[in-house]
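ok new one. same drill as before - structure tokens go in, u give me an amino acid for every spot. 567 of them this time. try not to just spam alanines like last time pls lmao
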């Protein structure tokens, strides 16, 4: 998990991109929808509480959350997906379906740079249903009045549409969309199909999940959501034939189209069809270049298209893509590792050793990274360096900790990225479509907009413009922790570690965070300050006892080195 995997936004209709040939047309199709949408900011939706209905309706908690996300997205609003919210809660060791106080929801919303938090409840006597929803403003903090609708349970879809329409109107007095027009923006959906879909998403058993989702497809064959979920389920089992079948049903106008195309490309690599994989990845790149700010320089796509080309013998055209992927994601060791493999294939062991050393710096505990570094050094005639690395490996991994390197199996070692981080896509769309923020804008809302611009530039590898955006955010609101966090990442990538530490400390002084303390610990380790790193990780786990990255990093530091003190 990298620092870039911070959020997943659901921008329905905006992430659906045409294949390359239709990219320009798709771009022009997006603009009217964006211009006509009265976007109010970014929404974060929590599950609705079952406040008295039968336990048989517990599925409605997540169901109303998902339906609210869909309704807001269809109306042109920017909304965190259910997966994005759950992923962020998991970072703090919090269960995705837990009930939270207003203060906790406010803090989570602030950490995610959301503008509004939506939550609610429902009751039912088995015949009628009452749904209540509220908006919690993040900047400045304020709780809006509740909106409520009651009607027959069988008319849940119509009832919920009215609730969301009232929410938007109550949240913004200038919201002028009529209920009739708002309803036209929504996709008609059968209640029974929706119930099967939600039950499928909630199922822990693959067979149950597949059965529920297939029933949703049967009832609503033109609805892409259950087909996408079935594709994900099949891909998780590496059943690529079934996954491709389901993902092929996702239309190019759908929000999940990019992810579907990417995963089909991964399947083609796994099936030994690199030519088809290259076609899918390059078409995806071409489409994205027409619509996004940074030209679709997404490291996951760059990595996989490079591997597809290399497997066809086109190593020279693969190398630049991997170099760019390595630059864009400074945490992931897979990209320099793959780059090192391609250099070995190109009979350039010196360059391979440089890449493998970078991979080792990013993931010091990887025995495979270390073994390939030693192999490349030996091939480059640097025996003393190779011996030094072997001694380091023996101390860290044990005398038999290194795997044997077999040059005829290099292709099996290549690391395919099987999950697309949609963060970059959506941050760029937010930046591209949002009104420009003036340099003299002030307040937390302006700071949040500057931070989004900074993150978009950071994801594109444009460190200078990212730094300028984060500094503008601090000028707009001096206490905005996310801006300090962004500057810390800029400085870390520039290897200005002392400055990065100062910015993270400034962010922590404004809002304590297990994530920030873990990042600070990583920087301390880069500075050979082991004790300081351990202290930060212990503090992180006091905040979030189940935060996996902190637990894993602390385990690496145990037991402490004899003698104490920073290394």
């Amino acid at each position: 998990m990298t620092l870039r995997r911070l959020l997943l936004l659901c921008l329905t209709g905006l992430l659906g991109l045409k294949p390359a040939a239709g990219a320009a047309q798709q771009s022009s199709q997006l603009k009217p929808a964006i211009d006509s949408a009265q976007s109010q900011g970014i929404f974060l939706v929590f599950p609705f509480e079952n406040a008295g209905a039968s336990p048989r309706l517990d599925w409605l908690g997540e169901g109303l959350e998902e339906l609210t996300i869909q309704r807001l997205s269809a109306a042109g609003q920017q909304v965190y997906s259910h997966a994005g919210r759950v992923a962020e809660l998991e970072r703090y060791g919090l269960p995705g379906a837990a009930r939270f106080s207003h203060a906790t929801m406010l803090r989570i919303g602030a950490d995610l740079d959301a503008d509004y938090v939506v939550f609610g409840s429902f009751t039912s006597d088995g015949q009628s249903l009452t749904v209540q929803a509220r908006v919690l403003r993040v900047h400045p903090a304020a709780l809006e009045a509740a909106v409520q609708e009651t009607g027959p349970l069988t008319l849940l879809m119509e009832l919920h549409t009215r609730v969301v329409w009232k929410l938007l109107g109550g949240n913004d007095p200038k919201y002028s969309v009529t209920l009739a027009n708002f309803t036209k923006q929504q996709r008609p959906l059968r209640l029974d199909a929706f119930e099967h879909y939600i039950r499928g998403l909630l199922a822990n058993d693959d067979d149950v999940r597949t059965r529920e989702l297939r029933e949703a497809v049967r009832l609503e064959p033109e609805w892409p959501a259950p087909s996408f979920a079935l594709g994900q389920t099949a891909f998780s089992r590496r059943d690529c034939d079934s996954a491709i079948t389901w993902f092929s049903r996702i239309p190019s106008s759908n929000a999940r189209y990019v992810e579907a195309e990417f995963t089909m490309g991964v399947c083609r690599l796994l099936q030994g069809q690199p030519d088809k994989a290259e076609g899918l990845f390059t078409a995806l790149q071409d489409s994205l270049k027409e619509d996004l700010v940074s030209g679709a320089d997404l490291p996951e796509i760059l990595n996989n298209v490079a591997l597809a080309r290399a497997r066809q013998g086109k190593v020279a055209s693969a190398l630049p893509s991997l170099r760019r992927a390595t630059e864009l994601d400074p945490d992931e060791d897979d990209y320099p590792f793959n780059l090192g493999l391609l250099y070995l294939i190109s009979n350039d062991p010196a360059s391979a050793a440089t890449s493998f050393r970078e991979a080792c710096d990013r993931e010091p505990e990887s025995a495979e990274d270390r073994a390939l570094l030693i192999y490349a050094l030996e091939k480059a005639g640097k025996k003393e360096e190779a011996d030094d690395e072997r001694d380091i490996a023996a101390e860290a991994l044990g005398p038999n900790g290194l795997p044997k390197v077999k040059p005829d199996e290099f292709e099996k070692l290549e690391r395919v990225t099987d999950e697309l981080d949609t963060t970059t896509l959506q941050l760029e769309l937010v930046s591209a479509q949002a009104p420009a923020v003036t340099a003299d804008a002030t307040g937390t809302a302006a700071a949040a907009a500057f931070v989004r611009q900074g993150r978009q530039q950071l994801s594109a590898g444009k460190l200078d413009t990212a730094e300028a955006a984060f500094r503008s955010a601090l000028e707009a609101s001096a206490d905005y922790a996310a801006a300090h966090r962004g500057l810390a990442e800029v400085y870390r990538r520039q290897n200005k570690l002392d400055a990065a530490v100062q910015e993270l400390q400034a962010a922590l002084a404004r809002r304590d965070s297990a994530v920030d303390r873990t990042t600070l610990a990583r920087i301390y380790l880069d500075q050979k300050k082991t004790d300081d790193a351990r202290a930060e990780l212990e503090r992180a786990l006091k905040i979030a006892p189940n935060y996996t990255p902190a637990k894993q990093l602390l385990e690496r530091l145990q037991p402490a080195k004899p003698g104490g003190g920073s290394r």
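Confidence is low (pLDDT under 50) at residues 1-37, 560-567. and btw The CA atoms of residues 238 and 525 lie 37 Å apart.
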